[in-house]
Amino acid sequence: MQITPVLLCGGSGTRLWPLSRKSYPKQFVPLMGEETLFQASARRLSGIFGEFAFGAPMVLTNSDFRFIVTEQLQAAGIDPGAILIEPEGRNTAPAVLVAALRAQDPEAVLLVAPSDHVIPDVEAFHAAVAQGLVAVSKGQMVTFGITPTHAETAYGYLELSAAPDEAGRPVALKQFVEKPDAARAAEMLAAGNFKWNAGIFLFRAADIIAAFEAHAPDLMAPVAAALKDAEVDLGFLRLAPEPWAQAADISIDYAVMEKAKNLSVVPFDAAWSDLGGWDAVWREAGPDDNGVVVSGAATAIDCSDTLLRSDSDRLEMVGIGLEGIMAVAMNDAVLVADKSRAQDVKLAVQALKDKGAAQATTFPKDHRPWGWFESLVVGGRFQVKRILVHPGASLSLQSHFHRSEHWIVVEGTARVTVDDEVRLVTENESVYIPLGAVHRMENPGKVPMVLIEVQTGAYVGEDDILRYEDVYARE
Fold first, then answer.
1. Backbone CA torsion sign across 97, 99, 104, 108
2. In whole angstroms, what is the distance from residue 113 CA to residue 200 CA?
3. In the chain, at which end, N or C, are there fewer CB atoms within 10 A of the end residue's CB?
4. Angle separating helix axes 92-103 and 220-228, nearest 10 degrees
5. With contact defined as beta carbons under 8 Å apart, do 130 and 48 qualify?
6. Per-residue pLDDT, 186
């Protein structure tokens, strides 16, 4: 049997700020090793396992992340299937419905999963999927319930109609339970028939569509229209924005699952985390005997129950005598908080938004389809950037109204177009781009090309670009 994975990766969490931001959320960040959470999720849902195999993944994301998705899938050695671009975020219900409609085959089996979860025991997860397929073959829809390890108040719960057996067979769902207070969470942990709601689902396309028709019929017309009028764009499928905007902003749980009578739960006893806060990162990283986790350019001296992380190669973090502290440093922002306040990091993001700080939402590196850039210095009439261009990639043919540019290649070779002149610029060579000149930068080589760009002029904003040609079809 073939299963089509459906990866949801359009969200932008704030509880892992400053590493996760709206412009570059946690699923695309290597939080737990060299691989990103998105890549690990895609790899977990690929390959052949006993009686079932995963097909090419279907990905739901937004326009800002579309090239990051393809780049990270290719880097992981996974051929992308359909990549659907949501014009705007409408929560998980419209996303799941459009995936089911896009599958076209009513008998298609879909496994819908967030792309930012950590599941270390892949074999145990596949065994749970195999158990779920038994229920799916009988017309059931399946969700996966995580066996709680502690009385967590940040998760919703699933109440099972009976205690699960040792084989981990599906159990009928009794009800969904909202995020509890500490006392109620402790009671559910002791009861034994409550599981954490992981938001992972397995079902046939026909069954989930029938559930929408029965419990959320108002979603059918706008979502179907958004898919029918979708446009192909460089291999992506852009859902039509007008009908999509008419779809309710609602989760799959509220829209369908809480009302469905044919929902079963497969218990999952192995490790799992949605990395919903820095306390979860601390827990999953494996604290030492003193309860300390250090990552990157960080050093702990006489600390306990503490997370120290520096994701900047220019910033050394040192903690001395800390207890119950989490400290995370980036090039442009530092978070220091009591570890018990991990869920309140979102308050910091809102406070920064209120004061107009770019760090609230904007990542230091701005990822583009051709590579990335980061601002090193910004002044009143100048800006200095470091720019990396992937092998074979090309920036758009463009000009500027308000600035001139000076490019110095420090790694690799650039092919540079300035008006009618095209030439190669190698390491330690530079080229000047006058104000108003039509220009383009390309990497014709097989290794990444890095250059330093110095912009000077009355305005150095990113919107001072007039594009003439662009291989990525950006406006």
1. negative
2. 5
3. C
4. 60
5. no
6. 94
Residue that has been written with the tokens 């764009």 in this structure: 233
Residue 475's pLDDT is: 61
Q: Which of 315, 263, 325, 260 minimizes the C-alpha distance to 291?
A: 325
Domain limits of the chain? 2-268, 279-354, 365-469
Write down the pLDDT at residue 168: 79
Contact 374, 366 (CB under 8 A): yes
Rounded to an integer, the average pLDDT of 20-38 is 89
pLDDT in tens, 362-413: 888 888 889 999 999 999 899 999 999 999 999 999 999 999 999 999 999 9
Strand order in the sheet with 306-310: 292-296, 306-310, 325-329, 334-338
- Rounded to an integer, what distance in angstroms lies between the CA atom of residue 46 and that of residue 3? 9
Worst-scoring range by mean pLDDT, 10-14, 54-58, 109-113? 10-14
The whole-chain average pLDDT of the chain stands at 93
378 Cβ contact partners less than 8 Å away, ≥ 6 residues apart? 384, 460
- Cα separation, 59 vs 23, in Å, equals 18
What are the DSSP calls for 146-197, one per residue? Answer: EPPSS--SSS-EEEESS---TT---EEEEEEEPPP-HHHHHHHHHHSSEEEE
Please give the CATH topology (third level) of the domain spanning 365-469. Jelly Rolls (2.60.120)
Contacts of 234 (CB under 8 A, 6+ apart): 472, 473
CA distance 31 to 37: 7
As to burial, measured by CB atoms within 10 angstroms (0-12 exposed, 13-18 middle, 19+ buried), residue 354 is exposed
Tokens 């909202």 belong to 178
